[in-house]
Amino acid sequence: MKKALTTEITPQQNSTDHLLLKNQWVIILCGGRGSRLGSITESLPKPLVKIQDKPILWYTVLTLYKYGFRHFIFPLGYKGDMIKKFIVQEFEEYDCKFRCIDTGEDTPVAKRLQQCAKLIPERDNFFMLNGDTFFDFDIIDMYQLHRRKEALLTLSLWEPIDNGIYLQAAC
């Protein structure tokens, strides 16, 4: 029996809001080299770099899980075997579907997405984010806006405005 994932991360939502995203796919890009981190990523992929003793990817998956996501695709590249091992060890026993795809070490993002597309039913919506992402916005509100506007694409962008302070813009 698979168990529910628990964490201290708690989004602001109604008790049924998480059902909106239960069947939605999320693609978490985990293929880049993380070269801006220098020697840190020589032996470790950027999504596995630890913040307060947990890999960045741990926080990302748990936040998405709390919002209701249960279908995850990880297009892997640089040190992808390490990421896959982490996912299996940390999350495999939970009530989610995880798909790890080796998309090649130096494959552009568009090609990675093309390889993932065959796993997502045609015309289904999906979320995509980087494997080294921290975020604090209401995904459910964003998804409801996307559906209300019947948008082809909805983006949430963070623009640096001053020394590490970021401004969110949804379009």
In short:
By secondary structure, this protein is an alpha/beta fold. The chain has helices at about 55-65, 80-90, 110-115, 140-150; strands spanning about 25-30, 50, 55, 70-75, 95-100, 125-130, 155-160, 165-170.
Structure description:
This protein has 171 residues and is of the alpha/beta class. The protein has a domain at 19-135: Spore Coat Polysaccharide Biosynthesis Protein SpsA, Chain A (Alpha-Beta Complex). Helix content is 25%, strand content 23%. The protein contains 4 helices and 8 strands. A 4-stranded parallel β-sheet has the order 5-4-1-6, sandwiched between helices. A two-stranded antiparallel ribbon has the order 2-3. A two-stranded antiparallel ribbon has the order 7-8. The relative contact order is 0.20. The model is unreliable at 1-15 (pLDDT under 50).
